[in-house]
Amino acid sequence: MADAGQPEVSLATVRSPDHPAAADSSPADAGQKKPAAGAESTEPANGATPMGEYSTEYRGLPDGADAGAPPSSSSRTVSMIPLIFLIFYEVSGGPFGIEDSVGAAGPLLAIAGFLVLPVIWSIPEALITAELGSMFPENGGYVVWVASALGPYWGFQQGWMKWLSGVIDNALYPVLFLDYLKSGVPALAGGAPRAFAVVGLTAVLTLLNFRGLTVVGWVAICLGIFSLIPFVVMGLIAIPKLRPARWLVVDIHNVDWNLYLNTLFWNLNYWDSISTLAGEVKNPGKTLPRALFYAVIFVVVAYLYPLLAGTGAVPLDRGQWTDGYFADIAKLLGGAWLMWWVQSAAALSNMGMFVAEMSSDSYQLLGMAERGMLPAFFAARSRYGTPLAGILFSASGVLLLSTMSFQEIVAAENFLYCFGMLLEFAAFVVHRVRRPDAERPYRVPMGTAGCVAMLVPPTALIAVVLALSTLKVAVVSLGAVAVGLVLQPALRFVEKKRWLRFSVNPDLPEIGVVRPPAAPDEALVP
Questions:
Q1: Mind listing the pLDDT tens digit for each residue in 322-362?
Q2: Residue of 135, 138, 144, 150 lying closest to 58 (CA atoms)
Q3: Burial (Cβ within 10 Å: 0-12, 13-18, ≥19) of residue 20
Q4: CA geometry: angle at 322 spanning 316 and 327, to 5°?
């Protein structure tokens, strides 16, 4: 409610001037309220609300039965099974890339890490995503969570850091793809052939994203099944050769803690990425939490099964446990045919991870544009319903960053991701404290105190990951964060000068009436 003497302003009246509903909209539509008599209109002549005043501000949380209502049910195309595999690929994609955990710390710590870290990190992040993702079922995802709790400025910072982290992450998959193939095709190890392969692969997978989430979802299912079957076969072949004592090998004085933790963290995070596709999910209030539950189990098993087989059936040589070593293990256990199968599975799995991550990144930009945080051209969709500008921007970022090494990419993306997760944790607690009775299609089954306690271990893990970062990674990552701090005010200036058009999607749900903030970046949860 507005303070005494201040007018109430409904932000649901914001419409793009070229939207078909703009011409016949009225303040009475959808329960909108007129400003009080004498209140000065803040809407410019072209009908778009300035980003710095209202259009980037999330409009609060609903109190009624329409809480979390989707913007449109007819356009939602992603069902349960494709959603599970999209989550699987945004988080994992299979055991490809976990080899460094054994090389850094030995079998015991590697196995223990993939048992303990899901409890400390993956489950809390998945629970937060289930609650807030079903509460705000739109493509802004975690950007909307933070903007509604902490204000539009911090919502933009969340979007910037998470998008950049996602693009850096996606630059990793062409690297992994070629690393698995270079033993069979040595020309792909470097030089011009590798560069052309990266560009060609990126172009093909970008085109796949352009064709739509329905295509991407079912491609993810097919790739997931094909990528995991060789590890099932490898595990069965390994059974007669297993030596359980090999699982217990540890040398605590010879552990590369930075590489170990970054490898674990990279392989078990990004559960919140699916939230930026929530606007495309059928019945998100039920589908999203269930898909996350099944995906957590799926991911943990997909890591532990081949890890137990590889470390238990093959004599330990930690120096060999680097990116791509599972293909060599397959050859030792089953022969060249199994090695080629694993290499093919790795290549296709990286394709699945690429298209899933690019979908998340590009739809995030679309969601931010629909809330007025980015220029309106980011909200434009292709004839397949996909965010063309977001896809092109994400693909360009991948090409620019694909020359980095595997370890550099993992460390840099983890650093940025950690900052974004701190904002996400804060937003989750703010929503619980300030609006405990707001409608939540799914609610984490514990009180506010329990939720805060749940966040203590992952917050401590974030502190450790940041503390172990190298100086180079810290400087580059903090520089990227600094860009975001000035980019949001710069975009506000661009909008006020009307150099680019910004608008809010009128089809997004009306979720409350807010008073004009005392400061541009005031949080909008009362």
A1: 888 999 999 999 999 999 999 889 888 888 888 889 999 99
A2: 144
A3: exposed
A4: 80
Domains (range + CATH), the chain: 52-496 (1.20.1740.10)
pLDDT at 393 over 50: yes
Residue partners of 356: CB distance under 8 A and separation at least 6? 86, 89, 90, 93, 216, 220
Q: With beta carbons less than 8 A apart as the criterion, state whether 357 and 273 touch.
A: yes
* Cα dihedral value 358, 362, 364, 370, nearest 10: -170
One-letter amino acid identity for 525?
A: V
Question: What is d(CA 79, CA 172) in angstroms, rounded to the nearest whole number?
Answer: 28
For residue 316, the tally of other CB atoms under 10 A from its CB is: 15
State both tokens at 258.
């930075």
DSSP string, 325-392: HHHHHHHHHH-HHHHHHHHHHHHHHHHHHHHHHHHHHHHHHHHHHHBTSS-GGGG-B-TTS-BHHHHH
- Residue of 423, 89, 412, 428 whose CA lies nearest to 228: 89
**Locus of tokens 């289930």:** 130
* Bridge partners, 514 (sequence order): 9
pTM assigned to the model: 0.79
Residue (of 177, 64, 61, 182) closest to 428 by Cα position: 61
* Token pair in block for residue 109: 């710590």
The radius of gyration of the chain from alpha carbons, rounded to an integer in Å, stands at 24
User: How many angstroms separate the CA atoms of 53 and 321, rounded?
Assistant: 54
Nearest CA to 86 among 451, 357, 388, 375?
A: 357
Distance CA 379, CA 372 (A): 9
Q: What spatial distance separates the first Cα and last Cα of the chain, rounded to whole Å?
A: 9
